[in-house]
Amino acid sequence: MVTETVNSYLEAIDPLRNQPHGPDLERALGRLHANTARNVVGGRNVTAGYIRAWGLYSPVGIAPAVAQDPVYRESIELARDLTLVTEHKLMNLFLIMKYGLADIKGDIVEFGSYKGGSAIFMANVARRLGMTARIYALDTFQGMPETDVARDLHLAGDFNDTSIDALRAFAEKHQLSNLIPVQGLFEDTAPALLETIDAVMLAHIDCDIYSAVKFAIDVIQPRMHACGGYLAFDDPLQATCLGALEAVEDMVQANGLHAEQAYPHLVYRFPAPLIRAADSLEEEIRSREERLWIIEEKLGALQEQLRNKDEQLGVRNERIDELQKSLSALHASTSWRVTAPLRKLKAALAGRRNREP
Question: Which domains does the chain have, with CATH numbers?
Answer without folding.
Answer: 2-275 (3.40.50.150)
